[in-house]
Amino acid sequence: MPETAQNVDPRRWKALIFIALAQLMVVLDATIVNIALPSAQDALDISDGNKQWVITAYALAFGGLLLFGGRLADLWGRKQTFIVGLIGFAAASALGGAALNSPMLMGARALQGIFGALLAPSALSLLAVTFTDAKERAKAFGIFGAIAGGGGAVGLILGGVLTEYMNWRWTFFVNIPFAIIAAVGAISVIREPAESRNPAKLDIPGVLLATLGLVSLVYAFTRAESDGWTAGITLSLFVAAVVLLAAFAVVESRVKAPLLPLRVVTNRNRGGVYLALGLAVIGMFGLFLFLTYYMQMVKGYSPVKSGLSFLPMIVGMITGSTQIGTRLMTRVPARMLMGPGFLVAAVGMLLLTQIDLDTSYPLLILPGFLLLGLGMGTAFMPAMSLSTFGIEPRDAGVASAMVNTSQQVGGAIGTALLNTIATSAGEKYGKAHAATAQSPDLLRLQSQVHGYTTAIWWAVGILVVAAAIALTFVNAGRQDGSSAASGSGEGAAEDAIPVMAH
């Protein structure tokens, strides 16, 4: 039943503003530094071999500690963890902006990842326990889903503006006002239900195994990008990740208070959401990387113009999330938004496989971006909501962490996998056409574009697989609110999600 008036937090919509602001800060930070990296590299004399660590240090800390951060949110309280994460993220950003050398910058990025791992799951779980009425939940998650999907593209735009008109340090300093406003707002208006905490003892073996396993997995994909998929270090890291995560699953099935209760991921709806989102992010983040280089290196766009070229994708994401997903989430099953949404995004990606040296932005890239954004926004919104819908309050933090983990691991895989595919395809094209090339510079550009389009074809296929998983695994009905209240036990939580439409 919907909540009665006296149980509804009157400040919940104000709370959403600050939760969404914090989420935007975390998501855009994943891409804003990419645009600024060449300038930072020159300023701090970072070698080509070490520049990847500016990105990797953040990804390793963030991806490796997300489950731990989600469990801490359940244990300490989401509001407290949220505020600590904001303050720590602001301090780490200040350190990065003031960096005097490469170790200082990389250390700051690792600290950003650590506090981001506290912040991201606590933000989503606060949303889950604050909005339980179906229609309000749809609106709240529509806004949150648009930010989660579009924040990466916003980071490209903001990074371009700050780098071109100010300097690279402001891509770090810009987080400070975001964090201060969100923290002050959180202290003032966020109210967390006291009964939603999980006071169970912390699962230390689970923390160690999960953290080491996820760090090994993310780092393996990073090394695959730089050293190759068959390099000894790459294979060793993949083997270590498999062994550690398998041991983690065994431990979690036996301990009394697991870090990740298996009921969270073995539910077919949540498991389907985590897998589909992870795959979709593989394609999306790979595309951000390629088209950023395409706009600047091939089309000759400035950093600002390159960033602004992604604006239609953001518009599409906001429209898909707030106008399509929000309006239909309580009327149709989630899979009927996620599956078609990923397929529409795949069509947009399909258009982008046709780019060449003189592609028209208005005629091809613009409609491709619009379709990609519209599809992703439509799919992300119900996926974000379903990932915590019907979950027991004591598991909300770790369930939210799993959403972020699937996206973070997906982003690491996407960047490494698709970049490796693009580089290999580009090299083969260059060798095959070397004898007939008009000029070395022209051949280099043609090879780059061929590599990009080859990788984008793979991204199209990955999005189709994500759609198939959403349509087959996710069998929940409308999120109409009758199951949003938590159950009283494991079985209740499992049965709470499917609410079939009549």
From TrEMBL:
- List all membrane-crossing ranges: 15-37, 52-70, 82-100, 106-129, 141-162, 168-190, 202-222, 228-251, 272-295, 307-325, 337-355, 361-384, 455-474
A Pfam family found in this protein is MFS_1
InterPro entries cross-referenced by the UniProt entry: EmrB-like, MFS, MFS_dom, MFS_trans_sf, Sugar_transporter_CS
Q: What is its main location?
A: membrane
Gene3D superfamilies registered for this protein in UniProt: MFS general substrate transporter like domains, Multidrug resistance protein D
Q: Where in the cell is it found?
A: Cell membrane
Membrane topology, as annotated, equals: Multi-pass membrane protein
Key words of the record:
Antibiotic resistance, Cell membrane, Membrane, Transmembrane, Transmembrane helix, Transport
Q: Which residues form the Major facilitator superfamily (MFS) profile domain?
A: 15-479
**What PANTHER family does the record tag this protein with?**
BLR6921 PROTEIN, MAJOR FACILITATOR SUPERFAMILY MULTIDRUG TRANSPORTER MFSC
NCBIfam families given in the database record? efflux_EmrB
- What this protein is called in its record is MFS transporter
Species, as recorded: Streptomyces milbemycinicus
According to the entry, what is the taxonomic lineage of the organism?
Answer: Bacteria, Bacillati, Actinomycetota, Actinomycetes, Kitasatosporales
